[in-house]
Write a structure and sequence with these properties.
By secondary structure, the chain is mostly beta strands. It has 6 helices and 114 strands. Helix content is 4%, strand content 44%. The chain has an 18-stranded mixed β-sheet that branches.
């Protein structure tokens, strides 16, 4: 072998005998997984989870101990959702295990669990004393790793080392106990909610199925039509039959006849798979119809002529079964001891499945309970329904062939979709052994390096001899675990392209295209030794290309031909001007690489040499000559700037333009003409079209247009260029211009200037010189440079004396040219300056104010005048006040806003997560008089609301922010310092304090003012003393009527927190203490809370109390009590403080469901629930409505602090009925005493012979709803049939109990009120905090029917979400079958008729007359004897609103037909 480098070559694949049918994944519908949401993608995911199992028992799998069971296929999973796994003997089971319940291994001798891994969510129980069975020589085998969430139990005797020996037998380790968390991610755990899906058969029309009763051998067909005849939305053919039954000891074969190459087929069987256990060699087998076979649409069947001819019909064996058949039922499957059966397909039941000995199965066995009976040594091959398709990638390389080049080349293999289990198959290569193989275009061993290449022979009977290898795909990957290579060799023989085959067999977990499990791919080798080089069609080429051509412009095309038809020549330049020209490798097109061709200045001829190649051999180079052609080129004209004097005469020359033409040597291309095509100002210039001379056409003026811009065109007749010509005028000096000017100046102003300068301009913008040449007043002067007139020194103007002045001014340019003008000066009367410089109100002051806000009506104002400062005190009114101060002509104003309205502040605390409790949650309520807020964390959300009425409009604001409740570090030293201040502080009212003491007044609430001052004790401790007054200054007292003071000391604790320690002391010096005489201190600090966006800060005061020993004050449950305060101050200085009492409780409640117990199995559709919280039995949520199958009973309790805990148990409803019917009394007699007792209190209308009554769950009494007589049925009285005798009746009475639909796990009654939580309705299922919700009104309007909306308008949330109707049809017969009478009712059920458990109680009574006689519907008396009621009762509930897991219009229904025998003894005549 030459070289060892591996390369990947793609190729086109031809699959012999298979074709190119694409496999599409089937839709999960109509299957429905009840334990997950209805979302289509979630349902599909559940289906994919289930399809990875070959053996599945939702609630348990049991392998019996009657002998060995061998199911060694390691590719499919084995699992349970919540049930146990019991291996009762030395069984051999292959594949991964995922178990939701306990695992019991009863006999470890020779037990082999092959393939691994193994994962259980519960415990493993081992037998005792298994030392010999687990010895080194034992064949017991346990492929791991093993992940065990629970315990390993069993052996308890001293010296029994079974557990350790068993662990040692497990490959790849055991993860249990503390090591369970280290369980590898590659070891999956089962989804405990995974189950067998259900199907809604409500509208299904069942076809006649298959029933075999004859003892003779029989063959039956199930015909599967092609897509052209029948399609559905699921990608499958679905067939619904009533039975699949064999009840004879016979040999039967059931063939599922499919189109050529198969079709995904699902067969739903209503009455189950009843296959007689004594049948001989039964078969359920897939057969493919021949290619071109016709399907009879009328008979809905294939033509089976020649069916026994296997050359026409393809009989699918268990080895080649492709996973395209499924059988589904809701009945028990019992295949106990059939003789040598062979079945193909996925067999699924929502009930139990019992499998007997020696079955041959290709497919899956999936059930609620699965029991495999020993001995079982049948051939079991795992084939999932609708498996992935194995294919080869035909797009990796266009040639599609392997090259003879001595290099290893990859065969690209992939799956059509991601597999859920391991996929594997064997393969080998079939090469020719013919002597003339080369002539037959067949590859033989001489064409390969066969080292490591599995070679085989496929015999005429389909068997394989020789070597093979395995290709494996891991679950979750569409690519194999390792690549497959072949190495064709260069053999120096001319053979042409040769073919060989890759044979695929023993397919597991997938299929080939066309739904096959065995087949071959035809591959090709390209011969490297028969090649000849390509040849050009011409011996040389001569091309022409224009000068100035662009890059990629074509010069011509060369062409070569390869005698090998499969070879396509490619071209390249071997020599010559390759830097200028390029050739396209595929087309031979020659193009320009650079824009360098110029006929006038560069070469006019170029030469290149081009070769053609087929990838291996090259042609001789061919000469290509390329000539450059002269073409007309565009002239060029450059931009230029010219000058001319502004006084130039018309006709004077400005300048001459000259264009450049590259074609100057060619007179045909180089004659230039000129013209002006645009100008910034028109008609001032013209150009000679031949010479390009520009001349003046109109008089010029520099001051009007100093610059002119022309666009001039130069053209050779074909091409043209334009240029911009800028003409600049040369300026000639002119005299300046002075204009009459009117200016102003203030009186009483010393040295002031007038309002503006003299108006003058110069055409050339030369600097000007100004001079006053006439001023009769002689008080003005002018700045010679700026032209600004001002007063001479010490001169002052008096408006009252003279208000207008006139002066004459001259203006001169540097050349002495000048102009004169008159300036009029007007004097402005001056107003005296007045300015408010200071204001005071209460404790506030302002400097140079224009607007102030205050809550004190007395305001002191100071202002300045030309004569000095003035002041006064004003008293203002509420709202806006404008105060004006004046001096002579001057004045100033200040706006004073007064408001004494105190803001309203409220504060509350809550948990830092929000949400409404679910329907299974009981929320503890606070006592009505308890002001505290309870939270479950020190991180609490504080909500502050402020109503500010101080402005023109009342402003309301509400904000929430997080506050971390914490304690400060108050040391014994801090407390000691505070204690030492007691009795050492000056406690005085403001009137008694020295004037040197600074006192502050803070309005902190409605009619509440805090008066504070600082004091220093003799020990040098600074404290703050505060007391409180009303708005009139009257002292406020404590609850004992005593005046009091608060003394506060501030310090920094060890954490740097500024802490205030405050005690309360009354006017007599008595300090507030606890019951033990210890001083009570309030410990407070300021917490800076941030708004949610972090941009705003809020100062919150947090405090709690301690005593002088440092003990914190707590409530009766040991929780620390905080006070959180927030103070709001408006712009006027009015303040209000709100305080919330907050108690932090972090202890979770303990919730326990006492009954029912976990995994209880019941048949009643409701159940009583007893549950406790912290040991106290609860009196709410005590009933539960149940659905068929597994039900979760959840009870949750949330305490007033928001701590929430729950408990859950599983209850399984099996064969639950919604309706029960019983006779109230089996014997009806007309005892005179009873007749008198009942008739005396009867409320029925006279003549009533039968009636229907319903128990009102609210009153506990029956209500007669319908009554019948010989004239028919009418509305009942609505009263209790017999006053005081509810539940007791005189005549023949049927007791009918029905179950109303429930909403959730609590068995909640189905009214709107039952799903409303705090005024909202959840639109998502579950009980989480983050469910989507909507208001009740929005829910009713957008999610409910019109009829429900009307009911809601009438009775509000008491409206029922379901409309429930119970229909009764009762026939009365004698025991010998004679018809007596029949009765019909239809009863609408209102919420009043449904009790708290969801039960509805009805009674049908045949009512005796006053003498005790029973009569039929027509009024005829019944005779003494035995009778039979045949009762047909139906309940139908239709959902009126959309629920999270159910759509509006969902219908729940049930019916029951009961025969009730009873006897009647009529009164004596």
């Amino acid at each position: 072998m030459v070289g060892t480098k591996k390369i990947s070559w793609g190729f086109y694949i031809f699959l012999v005998g298979i074709g190119c049918i694409l496999s599409h994944a089937a839709d999960v519908r109509p299957f429905y997984f009840e334990n997950v949401t209805a979302d289509a993608s979630i349902q599909q995911q559940e289906w994919e989870k289930l399809m990875k199992y070959k053996l599945w028992g939702t609630y348990g799998m049991y392998f019996t101990n009657e002998g060995a069971i061998s199911i060694e296929d390691t590719t499919g999973y084995n699992g349970t959702a919540t049930g146990n796994l019991n291996l009762a003997n030395s069984h051999h089971i292959g594949g991964p295990f995922t178990i939701g319940g306990d695992v019991e291994l009863q006999n470890l001798y020779d037990m082999q669990l092959l393939g691994g891994p193994f994962h259980t969510l519960r415990s493993v129980k081992l037998p005792s004393w298994q030392h010999q069975n687990l010895s080194d020589t034992s064949s017991a085998r346990f492929d791991g790793p093993y992940c065990i969430k629970g315990d390993i139990t069993g052996p308890t005797a001293q010296g029994d080392n079974t557990v350790n020996l068993w662990k040692a037998k497990i490959s790849k380790g055991v993860y249990q106990g503390d090591d369970y968390s280290k369980c590898p991610e590659t070891v999956p755990e089962v989804d405990p909610l995974l189950s067998i899906p259900t199907v809604d058969f409500t509208d299904v029309i069942w076809e006649k199925g298959i029933e075999i009763t004859s003892e003779r051998a029989q063959t039956q067909f199930i015909h599967v039509p092609p897509d052209s005849v029948y399609t559905n939305d699921y990608g499958t053919y679905d067939k619904y039959i009533d039975k699949l039954k064999v009840s004879a000891q016979t040999t039967f074969k059931i063939y599922v006849l499919m189109p050529p190459q198969g079709r995904l087929t699902r067969i739903f069987v209503r009455d189950g798979f009843e296959l007689d256990n004594s049948a001989h060699s039964p078969r359920i087998q897939v057969v493919y119809a021949p290619e071109g076979a016709k399907f009879d649409r009328k008979a809905f069947a294939w033509d089976t002529t020649g069916f026994t001819d296997s050359s026409k019909f393809t009989y699918i064996t268990s080895e080649t079964y492709a996973g395209n058949l499924m059988f589904y039922t809701t009945k028990v499957v019992n295949w106990a001891s059939t003789d040598n059966p062979e079945y193909q397909g996925t067999f699924m039941t929502t009930d139990s499945m019992y499998i007997g000995n020696d079955f041959s199965v290709a497919g899956q066995l999936l059930a609620k309970y699965l029991r495999v009976r020993a001995p079982y040594t049948g051939n079991f091959r795992y084939v999932p329904f609708d498996p992935p398709v194995v294919d080869l990638d035909p797009t990796a390389l266009a040639s599609g062939k392997f090259l003879e080049n001595n290099l290893a080349q990859e065969i690209p293999i992939h799956l059509s979709k991601t597999p859920t289990t391991v996929v594997s198959f064997n393969y080998c290569f079939v090469l020719s052994d013919e002597a003339d193989a080369n002539a037959m275009k067949l590859a033989n061993a001489a064409d390969f390096n066969t080292t490591g290449m599995p070679l085989c022979t496929v015999n005429s009977d389909g068997t394989i001899t020789g070597d093979s290898a395995t290709i494996t795909f891991n679950a979750g990957s569409t690519l194999p675990t390792s690549a497959t290579y072949i190495t064709p060799v260069t053999d120096k023989r001319v053979e042409g392209d040769e073919s060989f085959k890759m044979y695929v067999f023993n397919m597991s977990g997938a299929v080939l295209s066309g739904n096959k499990r065995t087949g071959s791919f035809t591959l090709y080798i390209k011969d490297a030794d028969s090649n000849v080089p390509p040849e050009f069609s011409e011996s040389s080429y001569d091309f022409t290309i224009n000068e100035n051509s662009s890059v990629k412009d074509s010069a011509g095309i060369v062409s070569a031909v390869d005698k090998n038809a499969d070879d396509i020549p490619e071209y390249y330049i071997s020599s010559g001007d390759s830097s200028i020209f390029a050739v396209d490798a595929s087309t031979g097109k020659i193009t320009l690489k650079k824009e360098v061709l110029d006929y006038e200045s560069k070469d006019t001829t170029y030469t290149i040499y081009i070769c053609a190649t087929d990838g291996q051999l090259n042609s001789d180079p061919v000469k290509v000559t390329i000539h450059v052609k002269d073409v007309n080129e565009k002239p060029s004209l450059s931009d230029t700037t010219l000058t001319v004097a502004e006084d130039a005469a018309i006709g004077d020359t400005v300048g001459t333009l000259e264009a450049f033409d590259p074609d100057s040597l060619n007179v045909n291309f180089s004659t230039i003409t000129y013209k002006i095509i645009s100008a910034s100002v028109s008609n001032y210039f013209k150009i000679d079209s031949k010479t390009g001379v520009i001349t003046v056409a109109k008089s010029l003026d520099y001051e009007k247009n100093p610059t002119y811009v022309l666009t001039v065109q130069a053209s050779d007749g074909t091409y043209a260029d334009t240029a911009t010509v800028t003409i600049q005028l040369l300026e000639v000096n002119e005299a300046p211009i002075a204009e009459e000017t009117v200016v102003t100046i203030k009186e009483e102003c010393v040295g002031c200037s007038v309002s503006k300068k003299v108006t003058a301009s110069d055409p050339e913008n030369d600097p000007l010189t100004y001079k006053i040449i006439s001023d009769t007043s002689n008080v003005f002067m002018i700045d010679s440079t700026t032209g600004i007139i001002s007063l001479r020194d010490a001169e002052r103007l008096d408006y009252e004396k003279d208000s207008v002045y006139t002066v004459t001014v001259s203006v001169t340019d540097p050349d002495g040219l000048s102009d004169t003008t008159t300036v009029t000066i007007k004097v402005i009367n001056a107003v005296e300056d007045v300015k408010i410089i200071h204001a005071e109100s209460g404790d506030s002051s302002w400097t140079e104010p224009d607007t102030i806000y205050t809550n004190n009506p007395k305001v002191y104002i100071k202002w300045t005048t030309p004569d000095g400062e003035k002041d006064s005190t004003v008293v203002v009114k509420e709202d806006k006040n404008i105060i004006t101060v004046k001096y002579q002509d001057g004045s100033d104003q200040i706006v004073i806003y007064l408001s004494t309205k105190i803001p309203v502040v409220t504060i509350s605390a809550s948990n830092d997560t929000s949400g409404r409790p679910s329907g299974v949650t009981i929320v503890e309520q606070k006592d009505a008089d308890d002001p505290a807020s309870y939270v479950r964390s020190n991180a609490t959300i504080v909500t502050v609301s402020v109503v500010d009425s101080s402005g023109e409009k009342t402003q309301t604001a509400k904000t929430s922010f997080k506050v971390i409740l914490d304690t400060a570090r108050v040391s014994a030293s801090n407390i000691k310092t505070a204690e030492q201040t007691i009795g050492k502080v000056n406690l005085k009212d403001e009137a008694d304090l020295s004037s040197k003491v600074q006192v502050t007044h803070s309005v902190i609430g409605e009619n509440l003012i805090q008066v504070s001052y600082d004091d220093t004790t003799s020990a040098g401790t600074v404290v703050k003393v505060s007391y409180y007054t009303d708005s009139n200054g009257k002292r406020l007292t404590d609850s004992n009527g005593e005046e009091y003071y608060e003394v506060s000391m501030t310090f920094k604790d060890a954490d740097g927190k500024v802490v205030t320690l405050t005690y309360t002391i009354d006017a007599t010096g008595t300090v507030k203490t606890d019951s033990d005489g210890n001083t009570i201190y309030a410990v407070g600090y300021t917490y800076e809370a941030k708004s949610s966006d972090g941009k705003k800060a809020y100062d919150v005061n947090v405090s709690y109390t301690i005593n002088s020993k440092g003990t914190k004050t707590k409530d009766e449950d040991g929780n620390l009590i905080y006070e959180v305060s927030y103070t709001y101050t408006d712009v006027y200085g009015n303040s209000a403080t709100a305080t919330a009492k907050v108690i932090v409780d972090t202890i979770l409640p303990k919730v326990k469901i006492m009954t029912p117990e976990d995994s209880t199995v019941v048949s009643n559709v409701s159940i009583e629930v007893k549950w406790t919280v912290d040991g106290i039995e609860q009196d709410t949520l005590n009933y539960q409505g149940l659905n068929d199958g597994k039900n979760l009973i959840i009870r949750t309790y949330r305490d007033k602090a928001g701590n929430e805990a729950s408990d859950t148990v599983v209850v399984i409803l099996k064969a639950g009925k919604l309706i029960t019917i019983n006779m109230e009394e089996p014997l009806v007699s007309s005892d005179p005493k009873d007749v008198e007792k009942f008739t005396s209190v009867s409320n029925s209308e006279k003549g009533t012979t039968y009636a229907l009554s319903v128990v009102n769950a609210k009153t506990g009494k029956e209500e007669e709803t319908q009554a019948g007589s010989s004239s028919g049925v009418s509305e009942g009285t609505g009263e209790e049939p017999y006053t005081g005798l509810t539940g007791k009746h005189l005549g023949a009475t049927l007791s009918i109990t029905a179950q109303a639909p429930a909403i959730d796990e609590t068995g909640t009654l189905s009214t709107l009120e039952s799903i409303v939580e705090n005024g909202y309705v959840a639109l998502d299922s579950g009980g989480g905090w983050d469910r989507t919700t909507t208001t009740v009104e929005d829910y009713v309007e957008n999610y409910c029917s019109t009829a429900f909306q009307k009911a809601y308008d009438s009775i509000g949330t008491a409206a029922s979400l379901y409309t429930t109707t119970i229909s009764l049809r009762i026939w009365l017969f004698s025991t010998i079958g004679d018809y007596v009478a029949d009765y019909s009712f239809s009863q609408n059920i209102t919420p009043d008729y449904v009790d708290k458990s969801g039960a509805i109680q009805l009674y049908f009574e045949m009512k005796p007359d006053a003498q005790g006689y029973l009569k039929n519907a027509e009024g005829r008396k019944l005779g003494t004897g035995a009778y039979i009621f045949t009762s047909d009762v139906k309940i139908r509930s239709e959902l009126q609103c959309e629920l999270p897991d159910r759509k509006q219009g969902y219908i729940r229904k049930d019916d029951d037909r009961i025969l009730s025998k009873w006897g009647y003894r009529r009164p004596k005549d």
